[in-house]
Amino acid sequence: MGLWSGPRPGRPYLAGAPVLIAHRGGSRIVPENTLEGFRQAVEVWDADMLEMDAHLTRDGVPVIIHDATVDRTTDGTGAVAELRLAELRELDAGYRFVDSDGDATYRGRGVRIPSIDEILEAFPGVWINLECKTAAVAAPVVEVVRRHRAEARVLIAAEYERWRRGALGYEGPWGASRHHIYLFRVLSGLPHAAGYTPGADVLQVPERWKGWQIVTPRFIEQAHRKNIPVQVWTVDDPDDMVRLLEWGADGIQTDRPDILARVLHERFGRPAAPGLQGAVA
Q: pTM for this structure?
């Protein structure tokens, strides 16, 4: 049977492990942080959760883009914070993407940087993992989420707590910051430090960080004792996916949702995603 029957109690947002999380929509097979990429992750690979990043435009609109500038992913230049939404909409967000054959398959096809409003409207039944990349964007993000009444399905994450101070009091799920993860990793290895519980609903962590092993079977076990799920990022190798899931990881963030969909189907009994059904028929 495998692992496909072990929902972790707590917030329903985090139930149903193991969870397929499309990191930036699956940035190795689609233009990252775009409606087109997220749509493929959901409709083709059956992603449970979409991971994405938020910055604030000059005119105060939270948009989905990882970097502080548009240079790496679009045909434009400049800081997101210095551009208005209308200016961002003129950019080609598929311009820099190249597929595994080196072809610019999305260039000139109308791919744009989406706003959070557009994301919540386009995917009304999908869990969203939303990382605040600056302090300025946190309060506007929460305002948009509340307007859509989407608190139950949008997790607010941030690398540093100061980047989401404007989201304090948010009613929905809350990811662990670097501070939470560091303390838990250190204290979970000490015999008399079991009393520490991070002020978060989930630990979303890299397996390794700067040569330091973060995720171990013991780390996952200790988190589960406190009813905290562990989701590991960013994992694209199928052998690593299998190993982490066998250790008990509750979810995998990946840039290759196509690979993870196959692993979950073939090794852990998840129903075949639409993108696999022809191949496994």
A: 0.94
